Amino acid sequence: MTSVTESAAGRPAGGVTANGARHAGGTGLAFRLERAGLGYGRDAVLRDVELDVAPGEVLVVVGASGSGKSTLLRALAGLLPPRGGRVLAGGEEVTGPSADRAMVFQDDGLLPWRSVRRNVELPLRIRGVPRGERGRVAQEWIEKVGLGGFAGHLPRELSGGMRQRVQLARALVGAPRAVLMDEPFGALDAQTRAGMQRLLLDVLRDTAATVVFVTHDVDEALLLADRVAVLGRTGEPGRTGVRAVLDVPAGEAARTNLRERIIEEL
Amino acid sequence: MAGSPTLAPSSPPDTDVAADPAGPRGTAGGRTALRWGIRAASLLAAAGFWQVLTAADARLWLRFDRLPTLGEIAERFGAQLTTSLYHLDLLQSLIRILTGFGLAAVAGITTGILVARSRRAGDVLLPLLEAVRPIPAIALVPIAILLFPTDEQGIVFITFTAAFFPITVSTRHAVRALPTIWEEAVRTLGGTRRHVLWNVVLPGILPGVFGGLSVGMGVAWICVISAEMISGEFGVGYRTWHAYTVVDYPGVIVGMITIGVLGWLTSAAIELIGRRATRWLPRAEGSGR
């Protein structure tokens, strides 16, 4: 197994980036799941999950639908308390959501009555940032995700891809220590999706935040990840839960091998 | 670029197609004029029908011979408009309904949110609300008379009670129907319960709440007029009933028309404010009325 050195995107893994100082408090958050049992109601989706996420890395969780990858992410966000075991963020037990752990949802995560600008300003407003400062920082992010001319638009006036750009800006504007992304490009067409992946790599280069990204698309995982965690199907004894955590190597041939390995594990 | 913004739906509903004469459709302005024409014609046709029946003193099992003609009504209306009493009545009814309805809106929305968001508040308040809700507000007249020092307060109380329940119930349902994703989004951005209340719950329930406000305004009119007929000294309802007791039938009709117009205006005002407040809804624009 290759060691974590540098992802294909050229983003140094596990450390503060050169530009990290731009965002105050900008060290990535470490996550750890210890024998965590996760699920809704009476059914456990995942049992005895053991997983470590290093500060500043991009960990992509791949799995088929129903493998519990969204469940895992919601537990990290603090939206779903574990049924057993522990979920730790930065060494402390997760008891609820926090501004440190921003989340990007698959779709419709924007508040439809707020314009693009007011959606992006929301995290700053919650934190009590003064109005002028708020507007300036939000505008910066809106331009960074390529929506400079759309600040006054309502979400319903934007395409699916543009709405996800807004979600990305809203998640990152508060300089969180971790960004949790739940199949954020899952509902987009292939072309838009490729554009969004490039944009994501681009904006992540400037942040030190840890990223946990959930997808069912193996190629997307290989493109974005420093490491890939593979979840097996639920309901198949012996194949449930985290099957493997694999480093993503730099070489083309090594990645092809890894791709086959992941598909085997799925 | 991720694509151009999608256009808001802008095609009007096809209600006017049937009325449109054969051939290509007219301009948007022409069609709007046509639709207003149809609306006006609908009212005029009803008035004309009334005029035919009353002028001919028709007795077709239903007896129209004692009802006033359009001319008599118009004459009475003209006379009333010049009196200060008519305007005083109008003002009095409006103050009553706006006070009762305004209090009901505030209390109803607050209660609806409270019982939907807090399990404890729901346990305490819901049985009480469900027990009182089936009682028609107008049946509370005896209680209102006993409870309040003046008739005025009693009438406002009855109006309040009438509007309170539809507003509470629709608010409660709107809160429960809110998608959880908006709340989760705000919480993962560091929002507290208070932030969720102001930034998600209150704006998110508005479409449902305005439905309740609209129904509430309707029943508020029913109850304010009924209460005035029973225990008022002023007001459109009192004046209408009074006209009947003194055999002033045109006066009765004038009162009824006044109530109809006032009800229509207040409903339209709520509709208008509601549409302004929910512009973000996918179909808010271009959907005809």
What is the chains' assembly state? heterodimer
**H/E element sequence of chain B:** HEEHHHHHHHHH
| Structure classification of chain B | mainly alpha
Give the domain tally of chain A: 2
- Helix fraction of chain A, binned, reads 25-40%
Radius of gyration based on Cα positions of chain A: 18 Å
Shape of chain B: globular
Low-pLDDT runs of 5+ residues of chain B are 1-23, 284-289
Structure class of chain A: alpha/beta
CATH class of the domain at 76-277 in chain B: Mainly Alpha
The total of beta strands of chain B comes to 2
Query: What is the overall number of helices of chain A?
Result: 7
Going across the biggest sheet of chain B, name each strand in turn: 1-2
Q: Average pLDDT value of chain B?
A: 87
Largest sheet of chain B, described in full?
A: 2 strands, antiparallel
* CATH H-level homologous superfamily name of the domain at 76-277 in chain B: MetI-like
CATH class category label of the largest domain in chain A:
Alpha Beta
